[in-house]
Write a structure and sequence with these properties.
Blueprint: H1 2-36, H2 39-54, E1 71-72, E2 78-79, E3 83-89, E4 95-100, E5 103-109, E6 115-122, E7 126-135, E8 148-152, E9 159-163, E10 169-171, E11 177-184, E12 189-192, E13 195-197, E14 204-210, E15 214-223, E16 229-239
């Protein structure tokens, strides 16, 4: 951030010098007008002076230094929401132009601290690639920011349970431990009654589960990186 403020300080210093020269010149004209021009013309000069003072942001046509590329705050790798907000940092007072899949989609003006926020970006199913460019008050544009890829996945993961079958009954202590097996997507997080199950490379799983006496509810949940969930609940009974 230090490099942004250093560059801004140089700009402000140049602007201050120009304003000092302008105000000094107008003050001299004001004095001359008081002696030779008269009150009506003098009043017009006064209005002009006030208008210049009210102008807080005059484009600096001599500024040819582009701002640094914007920086995005942390973003998810995947999401199941079709709407996205992007925040980040760029040169204070600059305009941030956000691109999605190489098309301009949003613009935002940075705050005095350099922060920006763009809301309601509509994602496409699958891959969405984002980058941004900052443009300062003089029209200079930065290099593109680092690209960020976000996947929209609104489809819940597949989940099949091969065993046990719903409604199965197990008798005797040697059947107190049963194997719960099946298959899901390889990249999901899988739990059985909040116990983490490890998947193989194909997404298959096999887990040894200890039953309680009576009816047992086996809740299996598959959650993908985008937050989509698929749940299966199987009830089995154990008789000692």
């Amino acid at each position: 951030m230090r490099k942004f403020y250093s560059r801004l300080a140089k700009k402000e210093e140049a602007r201050s010098v120009r304003r000092t020269i302008i105000y000094g010149t107008l003050t001299i004209l004001f004095s001359v007008g008081l002696l030779f021009i008269g009150i009506p013309t003098l009043a017009k000069i006064s209005v002009l002076l006030l208008d210049i003072r009210k102008s807080n942001s005059v484009p600096d046509k001599t500024d040819t230094i582009p701002p640094a590329p914007p920086e995005f705050n942390s973003l998810p790798d995947a999401t199941n929401s079709s709407s996205l907000s992007i925040s980040g940092y760029a040169e204070p007072g600059s305009t941030v132009i956000v691109f999605q899949n190489d098309s301009q989609v949003k613009t935002a003006l940075t705050s005095k601290d350099g922060n920006f926020l763009v809301n309601d970006i509509t994602l496409s199913e699958g891959k969405n690639e984002f980058y941004a460019v900052a443009q300062d008050e003089s029209g200079n544009k930065s290099q593109p920011s680092e690209k960020v890829v976000i996947y929209l996945n609104s489809k819940p993961p597949e989940l099949t349970v091969d065993q046990p079958q719903d409604g199965s009954v197990f008798n005797g202590d040697k059947n107190k431990k049963i194997t719960v097996s099946g298959k899901t997507n390889p990249d999901v997080a899988l739990t059985l009654n909040d116990h983490v199950i490890v998947l193989n490379n194909e997404g298959s799983f096999s887990y040894l589960y200890t039953l309680n006496d009576g009816e047992n509810s086996l809740k299996i949940v598959a959650t993908d990186q985008a937050g989509n969930k698929t749940e299966k609940e199987i009830k089995v009974t154990f008789n000692p």
